[in-house]
């Protein structure tokens, strides 16, 4: 991998290790990530089948690129339904963007396209399913999905945390997204009770959330009772709505957005795109491996049949070597690392050398079979065909797999060298199974 893919992995690596969050660094990182995202979206080397299979992931990359360009900070509001997370979202936005009191129990996947979301002042709020509607495993899955579509998480509670809330808070913290904790419905408590609850929440969040990021809010305060007395002394009662009190939380979010918004968005986009790049590479490699396996099998059959049925001694061995070299040339084309005929011949020689003991036995049997053909005027082919063809098949599988490994690693055997690579391949093969398959195929063709 070269170019934008390497840059993207390098950026993701720096984000994983942490670093400064000053505006200059944010601009530099955001621009580098955006450039790499465009490279990923426009890469002509990604097959259409891979793009189709990963369409939703590529759409998310497009949304992330839009976020970076529009300087948006995506904030997920997470918590129990009854804690008032939708009401808090509305209060922060200053409008009724999210339905209050409606259960989102059927929404268990936190994909950005399926969650309620709304924007204000560069902040995009995402209203998530209530954690009390989900089991533990589903809750953990949701937490990580929420983290993937958000840059910052506000965890909403309306009192001391339950065990499931504490578990959810720890799970969210493990996603390495910045966390704020909002104590909602603070108007229900006296000053002392409110301070006591904030202290309890800070204890639960020790090591997960900064103390100053545990904030009391009132998203939907209870109406104030108003008693009026007319001139005759008659009393009348009415209720008067009160304004939400979310100023401290909103100020904190805006401050984070101003100072660290670009960095947080770039971190999220960079890490997600880095994972996607690895997945794309693996899918492309898997597609190539499937094609390569087909190429190896075709040459196994061609070589086995040619060696088995060729009645001319020595000519069958020369034919086998030529087919091995031709196969390696084809594999080079499959993996986009073309080899010349002479390069493929040298690679076959290296592999055969590393398989000296095993290939010695194979070629020993081949020489005996070839000699019998000479002594019998070619008539022994009836006896030697299946065995010789099966051994030729096995040798081709070994050479093909070793050559494939060489190409996958970029024409390099890696730190352990050719000997280790070939040894691993030999150990992974079921020799009896391969030889049995080869013999059956040869005999089937002989019967024809």
Count of helical regions: 15
What is the mean pLDDT? 75
Radius of gyration: 34 Å
The helix content is 55-70%
Shape: elongated
Stretches with pLDDT under 50, minimum 5 residues: 15-24, 102-115, 312-316, 359-363, 365-383
Question: Quick one: how many beta strands?
Answer: 8
Share of β-strand residues = 5-15%
Find the structural class using helix and strand composition: alpha/beta
**Major sheet description:** 6 strands, mixed
Order of helices and strands: HHHHEHEEHEHEHEEEHHHHHHH
Q: What is the multimeric organization of the chains shown?
A: single chain
Q: Within the largest sheet, what's the order of strands? A: 2-3-1-4-5-6
**Alpha-carbon distance between the termini?**
47 Å
Characterize the structure shown.
- There is one protein chain.
- This protein is of the alpha/beta class and 448 residues long.
- The strands form 2 sheets. Strands 2-3-1-4-5-6 form a 6-stranded mixed β-sheet, with helices on both faces. A two-stranded antiparallel sheet has the order 7-8.
Features:
15 helices, alpha/beta, 8 strands, elongated, 6-stranded mixed beta sheet, two-stranded antiparallel sheet, 448 residues
SSE blueprint:
Layout (H helix, E strand, L loop, with lengths): L3 H14 L5 H20 L5 H6 L1 H16 L2 E7 L5 H9 L22 E5 L2 E5 L8 H13 L3 E6 L5 H12 L4 E5 L7 H14 L9 E3 L7 E6 L5 E6 L6 H63 L5 H20 L6 H14 L1 H20 L5 H28 L8 H12 L2 H17 L1
Parallel strand pairs: 1-3, 1-4, 4-5, 5-6
Antiparallel strand pairs: 2-3, 7-8
